[in-house]
Specification:
Hypothetical Protein, Haloacid Dehalogenase-like Hydrolase, Chain: A, domain 2; alpha/beta; Rossmann fold; eight-stranded mixed sheet; 2 domains; six-stranded mixed sheet; about 270 residues; about 35% helix; 10 helices
């Protein structure tokens, strides 16, 4: 009774080496043969998503940058986007600089593979490792610089200190109600916490809901699968929601379980409904 299946990529649909298992690919094809829509719901921007999901991989839509944009694969068209407004971008930039934090600020969709960056005075190896991937498309931020631009998201990197994360999150959301703060685990497999900040309406769940509303798909016919905190909005929206074995222990009790991403988690979850 499914009409739409949405899956996270890294740590969920993709194996650790970013390849796609034969079973997952077969499951995608089976869904398509049954007329069930296949949706990527990822924190990656569109450019980075297309680097690991080639054009022949049969997904129908991509909800990218955690829901900041939605792309129609068949028609090769951006059909939705939501950026942080100019005034808030400037205020948050000044705030993070005053806090002496290391952060990246990604340009507005659809150019959000490009970014600005700011180095705090305390060296951060995690920031530098990530900067290596971004430096070809990165511009340095200068204190008191006027940006006069919308932005897709902020990415703030700091050591694994949940108490500090929650305190900072509460302060930001109290002073800037127009944004939302999302915790995500470092994809670099380190102990650092990544804080992602978007427009308050942005989430993977809202991106999938946009598709359901647009295509007149009822919530009861949806399935989602994820592996981390930034998948919560998706898994709280879909009717049948799966957490992979390699996900955080504290989230597993809340959702249906499926094996790890190394064991074709997507195919195993889909197989329960076909």
């Amino acid at each position: 009774m499914l009409k739409l299946v949405a899956t996270d990529l890294d740590g969920t649909f993709l194996k650790n080496d970013k390849s796609i298992s034969k079973k997952n690919l077969a499951a995608l094809q089976s869904l398509g043969e049954r007329g069930i829509l296949r949706v990527v719901a990822t924190g990656r921007n569109l450019k980075k998503t297309q680097e690991v999901i080639a054009h022949h991989i049969p997904f129908d839509y991509i909800v990218f940058s955690s829901g900041a944009g939605v792309y129609d694969c068949k028609n090769k068209k951006l059909i939705y986007y939501q950026n942080i407004l100019k005034g808030t971008v400037q205020q948050l930039t000044d705030y993070f600089m005053a806090q002496d934090l290391n952060f990246h600020l990604f340009k507005p969709v659809p150019d959000n593979y490009k970014c600005w960056y700011y180095r705090g005075s305390v060296p951060c190896s995690e920031f530098e490792r990530y900067f290596e991937f971004q430096q070809a498309h990165a511009e340095e931020l200068i204190i008191n610089q006027v940006l006069d631009s919308e932005a897709c998201q902020f990415l703030v990197v700091f050591p694994n200190d949940p108490d500090r994360f929650h305190a900072l999150k509460e302060e930001i959301q109290r002073n800037f109600p127009e944004v939302k703060v999302v915790r995500t685990s470092s994809p670099l497999e380190t102990d650092y916490i990544w804080m992602e900040i978007f427009h308050h309406s942005v989430s993977k769940g809202n991106g999938v809901k946009f598709l359901c509303d647009r295509l007149q798909i009822e919530h009861e016919y949806t399935m989602g699968i994820g592996n981390d905190f930034n998948d919560l909005d998706l898994l709280e929206f879909t009717r049948y929601s799966y957490m992979v074995e390699n996900g955080p222990q504290e989230l597993k009790a809340r959702f249906l379980l499926t094996p790890s991403n190394e064991e074709s988690a997507f195919a195993r979850a889909v197989g329960n409904h076909l």
